[in-house]
Design goal:
Layout lengths: L3 H19 L6 E5 L5 H7 L8 E6 L3 H8 L9 H15 L3 E7 L13 E7 L5 E7 L4 H29 L2
Parallel strand pairs: 1-2, 1-3
Antiparallel strand pairs: 3-4, 4-5
Helix pairs in contact: 1-5
Length: 171
């Protein structure tokens, strides 16, 4: 397990790397959060020049909010399908062309048949491609949340980097 201070430092560094990578691009990033309760948006919003590329975020913690605001369909909200729908919904709501979503179980009990520490991170790329990563994280509820933020930012950084490589090849 990683300490809260180490997670915070990793998250801040990843957000800075993301900011550098999107600088001067047409990427507009949005996030839809459940498990992480706005921490992901907070990290991205604190990154350099975020007002130029960070469209914002939606914290949809309650199941009903995911259904009503993000157009998550009926069924479990801790699932790959829900992560995809959250990423699509927030992109539509905020006019973003790259979106990230996080849903999972922080504990202390299971949810939707998923064990504590199960996290789904969805990414919707500019061409509409959807990818979901599933992670099993350990620790206390706060440690799971902190680790989920770092995991989501790592995936976003990798996607931004890959998109930059694709853009570089297309010139």
């Amino acid at each position: 397990m990683t300490s809260p201070d180490a997670c915070e430092a990793q998250a801040a560094a990843l957000a800075e790397f993301i900011a550098e990578a999107v600088d001067g691009t047409t990427l507009r990033i949005a996030v839809a959060e459940s498990l992480t309760s706005g921490l992901l948006a907070s990290r991205l919003g604190a990154a350099p020049n975020s007002s130029k590329w960070f469209a914002g975020g939606v914290v949809a913690y309650m199941t009903e909010t995911k259904h009503r605001v993000l157009d998550v369909g009926p069924g479990p909200v801790v699932s790959a399908r829900a992560a995809e729908q959250m990423a699509t919904g927030v992109a539509r709501l905020l006019g973003a062309n790259l979106s990230l979503s996080v849903t999972g179980v922080g504990g202390p009990d299971q949810q939707d048949g998923q064990e504590v520490g199960t996290v789904f991170i969805g990414i919707r790329s500019p061409r509409g491609e959807l990818h979901v990563a599933e992670r099993q994280l350990g620790g206390s509820p706060q440690e799971i949340v902190d680790s989920a933020v770092v995991a989501a930012l790592r995936l976003l950084h990798a996607r931004v980097h890959a998109l930059g490589q694709q853009g570089a090849r297309s010139h």
